[in-house]
Amino acid sequence: MEDIEDLLIGSGGGGAPPGFRLPLNTVAVKPKKNVKNGAKLNGSLLSDLSLISTVPGTQTIYIKTFGCSHNQSDSEYMAGQLSSFGYGLSDDPDNADLWLINTCTVKNPSQSAMDTLITKGKSAQKPLVVAGCVPQGSWNLKELDGVSIVGVQQIDRVVEVVEETLKGHEVRLLTRKTLPALDLPKVRKNKFVEILPINVGCLGACTYCKTKHARGHLGSYTIDSLVGRVKTVITEGVKEIWLSSEDTGAYGRDIGVNLPTLLNGIVAELPPDASTMLRIGMTNPPFILEHLKEIAEVLRHPCVYSFLHVPVQSGSDAVLSAMNREYTVSEFRTVVDTLTELVPEMHIATDIICGFPGETDEDFAQTVSLIEDYKLPQVHISQFYPRPGTPAARMKKVQSNIVKKRSRELTAVFEAFTPYNGMEGRIERVWITEIATDRVHLVGHTKSYVQVLIVAPQTMLGSSAMVKITSVGRWSVFGEVIETLTQADKRTSAKERLSSEVKCSPCVDQDESCACSGDKAAAPCSCGPEGCGEQQNSAGTDTASHNQQLLDAQDKTSLIGNFLSRRRKTDPTRKLGDSRTASGDSLKQENSREEAPGEWGFVDRVFLGGLILSLFTLLALLVHLGFRVKLSK
């Protein structure tokens, strides 16, 4: 196993300035001496050519994610960085050059699935990189022998780890430093959903929890950075923002702020037409008790789902004490009662652990009673799994047959509930964001985050609509669209929302119309890659713009194409003045040379210089190899 700092920086030290990649010696070839015969030379030639094929950024990566939404966000950030450096992303593990496995340590089954996948990868001789909570909390597991590791707070260095792993090195980055930046490149699993981590770690010390070992103590992002991220993703067309955290309620206590302040700052940036919705993440009872009224006010906001996940884990105070949960059943009831009273149609989800060490029949009966009292629409029931290194793993366990029996009994109680009875015939606004697993229905959610299945064209993804509920099921309801309210291609930035000017929103398809605020009639327009341009009056201009988008889409599939597309983004149909955001910009740069849209900037020149140097290097290498072939004859 080698340290990545030694691999990349070497004995000279110093590293590279921020924002620049350190040089990689991937294509270096050392000529062999005393070649006696053509067979050896041919073998050398094949070896040299194989090195050329391993240029970083040309391989395909398979990413598998286990666990929570925070893990999903980490995977999306890692995918974004790898993609931006040219790596391909594939859902097919067999055809991938490297596997990146993002792991979860909450329960035994998820870690067992990780073990199985690692074993399969090793058998297939795939280079492996393991990320997430398992290696961060248990880096010395024998299953992790021979694989590279990237820690939960080192995801911004995944490209380096992948590059070195593909070279055959074993790399491990686990040291916790600063929080990863929120503006890293990101490839979302669902382009309409942004999972936004607001902090890492927590303030708790639950006796059964292994995640604390991995995520550590509470570390919160600043309000400014989070609000800035929200502004960015709204302009990118995101329609749902999920706040993710190991404990949302604890946000900001390490930096002197609190959750309500953050929520109000985010809500202020959401579009007033409720085209983008906010979902507040999981929060434990202790840290929201003092802010219940403020949080209820946010949950009533038209742009916020009236939904909250509040894990109780047990209906027995004795079990909660053994878990070190730092609240009582009465305090949990206060949270639920207050929110359901202050927020219309409020829906709350919770978690239950069956068979925690020391749980008696009476303790379990109290849990059943709590669930029956509230008949919550979502209850996540799990059996207790002892996690290595946790205090609960050393406690006397309840017999496994009893644990299973209690789990089945509580599940039967919960599944007997009919939480959506009475919704049939109602008309609800529904935000539609994904395709159902049956590939027939689209999936949306009401303001209370009730799942609604509708039969509608996929063009409705990313939109909201008025839907009549036609029937109800145990886990979701079914509906039919009555009226579409917001379209997926209608993006409004914060600056545009504050402006009284009539502006045209970007359109995805040039054959469609763009909806313009202040005008009921939709007018055709041509949209550039950065926003909506001026309306075009000639069919020829529309065709040119459409062809330009096709060229850009093709170019961006490669690193070189991505660079060339930067040169073509300024076409003859755009005015020179469009490159300036305001007249004040030209005044500020009065004494400096301002780049015209078609000029070469510093980064462009550096990129082009590197590209030319690489081509000359490859040419020289091929000439050298040809010279060696000639000498052998």
Automatic annotation (TrEMBL):
Entry annotated with the keyword Protein transport: no
Every Radical SAM core domain range: 188-421
Ranges where the MTTase N-terminal domain occurs: 59-167
Keyword terms of this UniProt record: 4Fe-4S, Iron, Iron-sulfur, Membrane, Metal-binding, S-adenosyl-L-methionine, Transferase, Transmembrane, Transmembrane helix, tRNA processing
InterPro entries noted in UniProt: Elp3/MiaA/NifB-like_rSAM, Methylthiotransferase, Methylthiotransferase_CS, Methylthiotransferase_N, Methylthiotransferase_N_sf, MiaB-like_arc_euk, rSAM, rSAM_horseshoe
First and last residue of the signal peptide: none
E.C. code: 2.8.4.5
Catalysed reaction, written as an equation: N(6)-L-threonylcarbamoyladenosine(37) in tRNA + (sulfur carrier)-SH + AH2 + 2 S-adenosyl-L-methionine = 2-methylsulfanyl-N(6)-L-threonylcarbamoyladenosine(37) in tRNA + (sulfur carrier)-H + 5'-deoxyadenosine + L-methionine + A + S-adenosyl-L-homocysteine + 2 H(+)
Transmembrane domains' residue ranges: 606-627
Superkingdom classification of source: Eukaryota
Entry similarity comment: Belongs to the methylthiotransferase family. CDKAL1 subfamily.
Function: Catalyzes the methylthiolation of N6-threonylcarbamoyladenosine (t(6)A), leading to the formation of 2-methylthio-N6-threonylcarbamoyladenosine (ms(2)t(6)A) at position 37 in tRNAs that read codons beginning with adenine.
Annotated PANTHER family: RADICAL SAM PROTEINS, THREONYLCARBAMOYLADENOSINE TRNA METHYLTHIOTRANSFERASE
Protein name as it appears in the record: Threonylcarbamoyladenosine tRNA methylthiotransferase
